[in-house]
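Dissemination and training. As part of the outreach component of the grant, students in the summer workshop were shown how a complex can be specified as a set of sequence lines and then modelled as a single object. The example used during the hands-on session is reproduced here so that future cohorts can follow it. Participants entered these lines:
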Amino acid sequence: QVQLQESGPGLVKPSQTLSLTCTVSGGSISSGSYYWSWIRQPAGKGLEWIGRIYTSGSTNYNPSLKSRVTISVDTSKNQFSLKLSSVTAADTAVYYCAREGELVVVDYWGQGTLVTVSS
Amino acid sequence: QSALTQPASVSGSPGQSITISCTGTSSDVGSYNLVSWYQQHPGKAPKLMIYEVSKRPSGVSNRFSGSKSGNTASLTISGLQAEDEADYYCCSYAGSSTFEVFGGGTKLTVL
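and obtained this result:
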């Protein structure tokens, strides 16, 4: 059973960079053909797809966030990471890491971590 | 504003059936049979209920079904149960520039 766990600071100052890591257990992040994704949800609002990294290392990003987002993978630690630069209060949300077995088929989710952008 | 349009809320009584619509465009829902539906209970991570328009993952009740016509996908829940009360989100592939878009979500209330 694959499990994902987000970790990182819960509070980030405006204009700084939000950094989160997702640790995958129950399977190797480099085996199989999967996308490893980040999705966020502001309080009381809907889901927003941020981007993903494929097993091969290729990345896809939400066009509206592309200039600020970097997703990377560390296969030695079975982790993948999200960096979102120049954050504002609008970036305050619960951030989920997830696995996509096929396109838009998110079959495993982390529990989510709340990141608040505030000075 | 979400890329896919869902009704903000729907409701039904136990045992009844309800349908949630998800309207996109010819660039997403209308072009690909890559629509998924997720159920989210308060404070929990979403759960995959339907993928590729109408396929159910193992373990998901056959009371949940999906379909698509043109630019609109639909999720139908039959035999409503109290535990079905949750938020539901659709998601569609939108091509190699936009990639993935979610609907704004629909709150299902079981009366």
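Chain B has one helix and nine strands. Students were then asked to discuss how this feature might be tested experimentally.
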